Structure formats: C-alpha cells, structure tokens
C-alpha cells in the first residue's frame, strides 16, 4: 500500500541563516565580521536579493559548522522553487487573459472549441477561433449588429458569437451575389411572412440569392438578436432567435436585409436598435441613421406604416383576435406580426393575444447551430481516452 507524501517544504537560505543567528545570539553585522563580508552583502543574502555563491557557501559552512554542499543545495532548491512559482504565475496570467478575451467555458460547452489539454492548447484554440496571433492581440469584427436596446452586450462574448457566424458562413455554399437581384426578390422573401409553415423556406431562398443565412444562439450577456456582415465579400444574415416569436424573427431578418440592400458599411462597433418589439423597458438611446433607415425599410416591407396607423386609429382600444387576423390577411402577413407592431406602439398590452405570437424554432431546427450528439459523444470519448492514459 502506497501513501502520498506532501511535497518537501522549500525554505529560503535567508531564513536558515536567520535561525542560525538567532540560535547563536548573533546579529547580521556579527556574521559580516565573522566571514569578512560587507554588512550589505549579508543583508541582501538573508533577504533573498543576493544568491549564495560557492565562495559564500564555503564561508557559511565554516561559520556555522555545516557542509558546503548544504548551502549550495539549499540555494539551488530555493531558486528552482522561485522559478517554478514565477512560471506558475505566468501561467495564471495567461489563462486569465484567455478567459478575458473569450467566454471559454461557453465555447467548450457549445463545441466551438474542444476541451484543452493544457494552457498552450487552449491558447492555440482561442487564437485560431478569434483569428489572432497572440492572446494579447485584439480581435476585430466588421458588422452591423442588432441587439437589445436595454442592455449593452459584453464585448468579447459578442466577438466570439460573430466569429462563430463567420466560421459557419465559410462552410456554407451559396449562389453568386448580386444586390440588384436581391432587391428584385424582396417581395418573394416577404411573401413567406404570411404563414408559419413558409418560415422553413427562408434559409434556402436567401442562399439561392447569394446570402448566407445562419442561426447561432446568442451567448450569455450578449443580448444579440441579429447581425449583417460580409464574409469573403458575400453578405451574411445571422439571427439568434433570442425571442422565439414570428414577429421578432421577421423584423430581425428584414432589418438585416435592409442593411445589405441599402449598402450600409459594416461597422467595427455595434449599432444600437431601439425597435425591439418586446416588453423590455427601453431607455432612450441615440441610434445611427443607418439603423433608423434599416428599421424603417424593414417595417415598410412588412406593413405599410400609414395603413397600420389608420388601423390603430380606427380600432383602438378594442383589438380582437378576429380584427387583427383580418387586417393581417389583407396585407399578406402573419397576424403575429401585426400584433407585434401593435404591442410595440403601445396599442395592445404585451400580455394579451399571445397565442398569435407563434414560435418559429420548430420550423428551423436543422438551421440552428447546436453541438450534435455525435460531437458530444466524440468529445466524451476523447476525454475518457485522455483520462485512461493519465
């Protein structure tokens, strides 16, 4: 039966010298006189600022009646201990930096990176994921980002989400892109907003028009709804489905489509959008002209603002399900989209008629980026193998 031993305690040479002086009733100045050394040299040795050389070891051995090797080994072990401590501190600083520039635990959980073997492996994976050379480089993104107007996203989590979108876009084949052709087919896209069943056709239609379409669930503390960006000169529309509602889905993707058609340049900094269509308590924010233009165009594609305003004036405050459905049918949109706008404008409470706000995730399951069972089992198998080897 084997028992584990605690590691030997490392004692500094200075501490041993101090104990020897105390046992003999000597001072540091006394020892300096005895060995013929300046007081400052003895003081620096005791405080660890100066190392014990072979000559000093010989002198201390004579003064204290010990062997020369005792002091040489004591000094060597202590310096090795300090070196290991310094390396350990550097390792901690490095890991701290990696966890600062990326939500590491979440990336591993989602399978965006694998369980690291060590800090070096983690560093390589994070740098590769973020497209940087060193953990101390700053990753950058160029994007028009739609997120909560109430909460500001955590910067590095936001960047990680965008990087995942970029990676998936590079793996996704799409047709050649032409903005004029895309613009000519907007009515074909919005025609799918009439029924829930047509939601499933949205991704392939965008791909046929040369636009990457991706659904990547948002990371904690990002509050992202959607984004428009370019990968290899082709546009990307990405959404998180943070709110699984048909009105939110359509407004988000059309908002991003508007950025592309209007030719808005992707920005390094996120652009705030206050047209959240949720019951969040929105504080007043200044949003860019590009965001306002994208909001206006997205709404125009869904519902004519003047006709919506007229509907509100005529019907308020008694909006029944039947009246909303009739208005939606006349404008070839799902009634949930009409209800979302009525709620946004304060005409209908967020608590009422929520059965119209149908979910879209069931129709888009194959497009949502989640770790597959195969990926999970593969990682589990790798972990078991590593554990067995260790």
In short:
The chain is mostly helical and 390 residues long.
Rg over CA atoms? 33 Å
The order of strands across the largest sheet is 1-3-4-2
How many structural domains does the protein architecture include? 2
Residue runs with pLDDT of under 50 for 5 or more positions: 1-7, 268-285, 373-390
State the oligomer: single chain
- Beta-strand percentage? 5-15%
- Structural class assignment: mainly alpha
Q: Give the total of beta strands.
A: 4
Largest sheet: 4 strands, mixed
Number of helices: 17
Mean pLDDT: 85
**Percent in helix:** 40-55%
Shape: elongated
Summarize the helix and strand pattern as letters: HHHHHHHEHHHHEEEHHHHHH
First-residue to last-residue Cα separation: 20 Å
Could you please describe the fold and organization of this structure?
By secondary structure, this protein is mainly alpha-helical. It folds into two domains: 13-94, Orthogonal Bundle (434 Repressor (Amino-terminal Domain)); 144-276 and 284-374, no CATH class. The chain is 53% helix and 6% strand. It is built from 17 helices and four strands. The chain has helices at 13-24, 28-35, 39-46, 54-64, 68-101, 104-110, 119-130, 155-171, 179-184, 186-190, 202-208, 246-261, 289-302, 305-315, 321-330, 335-344, 373-389; strands spanning 144-147, 212-215, 224-231, 234-239. Helix 4 (54-64) packs across helix 5.
């Amino acid at each position: 039966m084997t028992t584990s031993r605690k590691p030997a305690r490392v004692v500094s040479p200075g501490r041993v010298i101090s104990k020897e002086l105390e046992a003999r009733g000597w001072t540091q100045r006394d020892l300096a006189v005895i060995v013929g050394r300046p007081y400052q040299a003895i003081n620096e040795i005791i405080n660890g600022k100066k190392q014990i050389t072979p000559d000093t070891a010989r002198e201390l051995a004579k003064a204290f009646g010990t062997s020369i090797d005792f002091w040489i080994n004591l000094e060597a072990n202590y310096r090795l201990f300090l070196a290991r401590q310094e390396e350990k501190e550097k390792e901690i600083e490095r890991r701290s930096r990696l966890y600062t520039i990326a939500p590491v635990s979440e990336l591993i959980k989602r399978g965006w990176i694998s369980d690291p073997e060590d800090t070096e492996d983690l560093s390589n994976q994070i740098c590769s994921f973020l497209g940087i050379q060193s953990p101390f480089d700053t990753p950058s993104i160029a994007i028009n980002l739609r997120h909560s107007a109430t909460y500001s996203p955590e910067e590095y989590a936001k960047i990680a989400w965008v990087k995942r979108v970029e990676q998936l876009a590079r793996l996704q084949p799409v047709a050649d892109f032409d903005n004029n052709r895309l613009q000519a087919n907007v009515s074909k896209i919005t025609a799918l907003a009439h029924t829930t069943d047509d939601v499933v056709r949205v991704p392939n239609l965008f791909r046929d028009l040369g636009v990457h379409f991706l659904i990547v669930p948002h990371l904690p503390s990002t509050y992202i709804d959607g984004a428009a960006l370019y990968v290899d000169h082709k546009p990307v529309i990405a959404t998180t489905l943070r709110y699984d509602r048909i009105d939110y889905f359509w407004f988000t993707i059309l908002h991003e489509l508007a950025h592309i058609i209007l030719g808005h340049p992707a920005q390094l900094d996120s652009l705030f959008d206050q047209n959240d269509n949720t019951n969040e308590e929105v504080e007043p924010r200044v949003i860019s002209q590009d965001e306002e233009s994208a909001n206006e165009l997205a709404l125009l594609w869904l519902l004519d603002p003047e006709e919506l305003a007229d509907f509100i004036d005529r019907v308020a405050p008694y909006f029944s399900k039947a009246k909303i459905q009739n208005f939606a049918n006349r404008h070839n949109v799902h009634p949930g989209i009409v209800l979302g706008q009525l709620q946004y404008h304060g005409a209908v409470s967020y608590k009422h008629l929520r059965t119209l706000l149908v979910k879209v995730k069931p129709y888009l399951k194959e497009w949502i980026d989640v770790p597959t069972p195969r990926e999970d089992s593969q990682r589990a198998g790798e972990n078991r193998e590593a554990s067995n080897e260790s």
